[in-house]
Amino acid sequence: MSDRTLIVGNWKMNLNTSEASVLLHRLEERIKAHQDIEVVLAPSTLVIQPLSLQIDRHKFRLAAQNAFFKDEGPFTGEVSFTQLRDLVHYVIIGHSERRLHFEESLGIVRDKVAASFRNDIIPILCVGETQSERRAGETRQVLHDQVTSALSNLTANEVEDMVIAYEPVWAISTFGGILAKPDEVKKEMDFIRHQVRELYGAKAAKRVRVLYGGSVDDQIVGGYLEIDGCDGVLVGAASLNYHKFAGIVDRAYHINRQPKEKPNEPDEK
Length: 269
Ligand code: PGA
Hints:
By secondary structure, this protein is an alpha/beta fold. It is built from twelve helices and eight strands.
């Protein structure tokens, strides 16, 4: 587990350049820089370049919401990791909206994770089951397949650096927004870490950052951040509201100051 809590705001396909600039301005006024909290903003691709000029790098890092796995070439309408490499720290890969609306397969997600590392950008890999998969008892199979395929052909060092967000599709606000119980979330996060351990060993399993995402706002974020093994949250709708998003960062700050029980971590190899 990382000692820095990661809070990622996914603005999705919202805000034009001036609206994004205003939101960033409000967030910069409201959010203080904390050493133990890393705040990442993922605006639409169009807005990344202007925000990169405006952003206070002591407070925020930028993420892209997607990129194409080829570095350059005849791929009309796409933007590559190579084009983004000087602008963003992270790229969100395999978000359920991309898997479901744009039919991103396991193979495409795997190629995007590889392209991300090839271009020195840290991937935030999203995994999670749909409501029907959950009802059919297939959650573990889905998580196994998504994690195993996305992580194939990486080095243990790369896996240690990456971020995996557990986002049950049924809990995402735009897909149903059913609140997931923190104890259920913990079981699946543990399972994800277990998968990483099977593939890359105890050190990678300990160091990979695992986030939760799904209808997280300033009121309920504490329940997830307090999960042993949760390194932060991926926030959609609430990240468009600067009160709520700043409230999430405040909550993380206070939780980090509470005395912690010693976590149950896997032994290092
Ligand atoms: P939500 O979105 O917070 O609006 O549920 C999360 C996500 O899609 O990453």
